């Protein structure tokens, strides 16, 4: 068989870069090399997406390569795609070469045709599970194809195909097309990401987090991303699939609860975090699912800490003899330093506390309440805005971009609002119990109190507090980690004069650029 042009099997042998495979598939290759359990799958390259966007159709040869890749997946799993016995279902996810959290489409449980759903019910003896999985597929497939501009009109009114291969072809197109949606273009513009890169599409065997009480999904950092402390951090959702955590439809639990509920999964997860962090020589982030007590890793990347967490992480990795001092200095940007002293709402009896939720991104933001994304864009032209929503979705991207801070009634640290807020460095509070948002009347109620669009509030993305007005704000004092890092910076630059902190770090960066270390620096 001739080499495939558009599709690659995801395995330890793949040697291509993230620019071709996309960041998600590139991370999966690493997981294979580390010997971790990863659902079998393949990736459609970014080049296929660029060809689709250019020509408005799937590139020549892609359909044949998809069919061949599915046949290989059937052989490796012992299952039949869309078949009535031992049915194979897959996830279809975007995976650009650069991180764009929550901006593009995902389809879960694809391949659950009418026949395959009956087959899954017969195989598991759990018809409600099979029907729930089929319902989730229909919802995510319909949402993805409708959201993709250019496809919605072409397929409006057409039923979801009951042929698994046709479902896959449509889903791949929908992910390709989601690269060019307004929300994705807005995100790339904000972050200086070129518009011509395209996204890869990752297709993997489904692992069902909604299978039973010993199944679930979650996200984990090897260290706390808010502080840099060397403790695992994240959240878990038992008996659900990942889209429930992202949407905020179901309440997540602290990651540590996994240790008591599924000690075997917990031990495997800790081992995975250790291996991945060891490879990166950095903190890491993973997404995982477990089915019937068996752990599968779905995604991995470096932690990308900022502010005080980045400073603590860099200095402690030196202490642990993982990196040298010069590398620690280069890992902390001068832009991080203004955020090292995390601002917080000062404790005071005079603070008029409206609500409390989960702090999802550190910092304090004050602004006028806006209960719709469109309202946030309009109001932000005149003054800072706090976007308050039941939960957010990719369609709210323009409002998230305009807002100074974000509050949601539902969701946890892995929800769409939290992930996007961290990516944009905006304070956020999620999971505010009892918060009701009525966008029609422009009102917010919680604990028997109500405020309307335009009310001035202040949010604390560390404590999760939402206060009326503008309470006093204080900043954390500079800690020992920052003092040590800046002392190293002065040693490298040779300048021990009194200067601004950012200038001290800048001077060290300049010295390291002009005279890169040739040996092992002192610790």
* Extended strand count: 25
Q: What integer value in Å does the Rg equal?
A: 24 Å
Strand percentage, roughly? 15-25%
Helical run tally: 18
Most strands sheet? 8 strands, mixed
Please state the structural category.
alpha+beta
**Share of residues in helices:** 25-40%
Can you describe what's shown?
- By secondary structure, the protein is an alpha+beta fold.
- It contains 18 helices and 25 strands.
- The strands form 6 sheets. An 8-stranded mixed β-sheet has the order 14-24-23-16-17-18-19-15. It has a 5-stranded antiparallel β-sheet with strand order 1-2-7-5-6.
- The longest helix is centred in the N-terminal third of the chain and has 21 residues, at 127-147.
In short:
The chain is of the alpha+beta class. The protein has 18 helices and 25 strands. The model has no long low-confidence stretch (mean pLDDT 92).
Topology:
Elements: E1 7-9, H1 18-33, E2 41-44, H2 46-55, H3 62-77, E3 80-81, E4 87-88, E5 90-96, E6 106-110, H4 114-124, H5 127-147, H6 152-155, H7 164-178, H8 182-191, E7 199-205, E8 216-221, E9 233-238, H9 242-247, E10 253-254, H10 257-261, H11 263-280, E11 284-291, E12 294-302, H12 307-319, H13 325-331, E13 343-345, E14 353-356, E15 358-361, E16 364-370, H14 373-379, E17 385-389, H15 397-402, E18 405-408, H16 416-424, E19 428-430, E20 436-438, E21 443-446, E22 449-452, E23 456-460, E24 465-468, E25 473-475, H17 480-493, H18 501-514
Parallel strand pairs: 3-4, 16-17, 17-18, 18-19
Antiparallel strand pairs: 1-2, 2-7, 5-6, 5-7, 8-9, 8-11, 9-10, 11-12, 13-25, 14-24, 15-19, 16-23, 20-21, 21-22, 23-24
């Amino acid at each position: 068989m001739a080499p495939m042009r558009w599709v690659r099997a995801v395995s330890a042998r793949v040697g291509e870069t993230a620019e071709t495979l996309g960041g998600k598939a590139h991370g999966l290759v690493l997981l294979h090399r580390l010997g971790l359990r990863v659902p079998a799958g393949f990736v459609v390259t970014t080049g296929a997406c660029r060809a689709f966007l250019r020509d408005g159709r799937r590139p020549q040869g892609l359909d044949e390569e998809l069919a061949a890749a599915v046949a290989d997946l059937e052989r490796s799993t012992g299952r039949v795609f869309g078949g009535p016995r031992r049915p194979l279902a897959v996830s279809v996810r975007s995976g650009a070469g650069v991180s764009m959290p929550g901006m593009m489409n995902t389809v879960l449980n694809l391949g659950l045709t009418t026949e395959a759903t009956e087959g899954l019910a017969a195989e598991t003896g759990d018809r409600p599970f099979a029907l729930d999985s089929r319902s989730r597929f229909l919802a995510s497939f319909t949402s993805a194809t409708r959201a993709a501009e250019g496809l919605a009109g072409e397929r409006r009114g057409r039923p979801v195909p009951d042929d698994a291969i046709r479902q896959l072809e449509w889903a791949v197109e929908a992910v390709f097309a989601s690269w060019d949606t307004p929300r994705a273009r807005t995100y790339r513009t904000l972050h200086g990401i070129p518009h011509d890169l395209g996204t890869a599409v990752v297709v993997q065997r489904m692992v069902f987090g909604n299978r039973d009480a010993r199944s679930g999904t979650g996200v984990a950092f090897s260290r706390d991303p808010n502080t840099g402390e060397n403790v695992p951090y994240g959240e878990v959702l038992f008996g659900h699939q990942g889209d429930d955590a992202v949407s905020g439809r179901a309440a997540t639990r602290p990651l540590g609860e996994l240790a008591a509920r599924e000690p075997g999964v917990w031990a495997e997860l800790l081992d995975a975090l250790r291996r991945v962090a060891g490879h990166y020589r950095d903190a890491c982030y993973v997404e995982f699912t477990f089915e019937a007590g068996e752990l599968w890793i779905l995604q991995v990347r470096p932690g990308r800490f900022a502010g005080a967490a980045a400073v603590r992480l860099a200095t402690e990795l030196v202490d642990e003899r993982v990196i040298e001092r010069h590398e620690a200095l280069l890992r902390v940007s001068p832009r991080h330093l203004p955020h090292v002293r995390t601002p917080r709402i000062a404790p005071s009896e005079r603070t008029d506390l409206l609500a409390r939720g989960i702090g999802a991104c550190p910092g304090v933001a004050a602004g006028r309440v806006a209960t719709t994304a469109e309202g946030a864009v309009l109001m932000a032209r005149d003054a800072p805005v706090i976007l308050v929503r039941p939960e957010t979705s990719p369609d709210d991207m323009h409002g998230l971009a305009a807002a100074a801070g974000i509050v949601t009634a539902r969701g946890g640290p892995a929800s769409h609002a939290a992930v996007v807020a961290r990516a944009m460095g905006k304070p956020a509070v999620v999971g505010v119990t009892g918060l009701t948002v009525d966008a029609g009347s422009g009102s917010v109620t919680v604990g028997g109190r109500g405020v309307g669009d335009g009310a001035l509030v202040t949010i604390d993305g560390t404590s999760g507090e939402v206060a009326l007005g503008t309470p006093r704000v204080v900043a954390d004092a500079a800690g020992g980690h920052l003092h040590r890092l800046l002392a190293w910076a002065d040693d490298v630059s040779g300048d021990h004069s009194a200067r601004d902190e950012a200038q001290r770090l800048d001077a060290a960066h300049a010295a390291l650029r002009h005279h890169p270390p040739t040996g092992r620096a002192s610790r």
